[in-house]
Design brief:
This protein is α/β, with parallel strands linked by helices and 213 residues long. It has one domain: Metallo-dependent phosphatases (Purple Acid Phosphatase, chain A, domain 2, 4-Layer Sandwich). Helices cover 36% and strands 18% of the residues.
Length: 213
């Protein structure tokens, strides 16, 4: 009887284990067509959480459409700040003090106050799981994951191996690369979308790259 109970418990525990699954999506830069391609391909992996690495603004011509597409995604998706979003919000705060000036800035970007509210409510500087650490620009390799500054998470230019800092994957955008590459478990997903390149995403646990091409 005890053996049967142990076997039943073991089967239950195996069934209840949740395998971590995610899709990290690189810098979009106001380009709706590549984003739609990636989101369409991601439908094949419905149990994967979408993690957007920031830089939704600038370069491309479809910022409102990109933000609307992100807003339409389910609430379980993760949205990170890129340096372009932080710079926009700082600019809006500094130069949009009057209603007239604020509306002028928003009209220039063709976005609304609803978009701004969504950005402030939903974007964060990093996301961490059991397997990985996600931020727009990676990390400063001189400090542990729990000691990173906002500036490092937005602007770090470190391109090397990070095994001396963490055993986890470090997934970032920000640094433009011709195609997705990695140094050890440090992955770079900004494949120049909006600048003549493509949008790329990394699937886990498959470690498969999908692109908008």
């Amino acid at each position: 009887m005890l053996k049967e109970l142990n076997n039943t418990q073991e089967i239950y525990e195996k069934k209840s284990e949740k395998v971590e699954k995610w899709i990290a999506i690189g810098d979009i830069h106001a380009s709706i067509k590549p984003l739609k391609v990636i989101l369409d391909k991601a439908k094949e992996f419905k149990d994967h959480q979408l993690i957007f690495l920031g830089d939704y603004f600038d370069y491309g011509e479809n910022l409102p459409e990109v933000l609307d597409a992100l807003i339409e995604k389910d609430s379980e998706s993760v949205y990170l700040y890129g340096n372009h979003e932080v710079e926009f919000l700082n600019f809006l705060k500094k130069y949009g003090k009057s209603d007239f000036d604020r509306n002028k800035i928003l009209n220039h970007f063709r976005i609304s106050e609803d978009h701004v509210c969504w950005l402030k409510k939903n974007l964060k500087y990093f996301h961490e799981t059991d397997s990985a650490f996600f931020s727009h620009a990676g990390i400063d390799d001189q400090y542990g994951l729990n000691r990173q500054s906002k500036h490092s998470l937005l602007y770090s230019s470190y391109r090397g191996d990070l095994s001396h800092v963490t055993y986890k994957f470090v997934i970032q955008g920000h640094i433009p690369v011709k195609k997705v590459r990695h140094v050890g478990m440090h992955w770079f997903l900004d494949s120049k979308c909006g600048l003549g390149g493509k949008l790329s995403a990394l699937l886990y646990p498959e470690l498969k790259v999908i692109t908008s091409n």
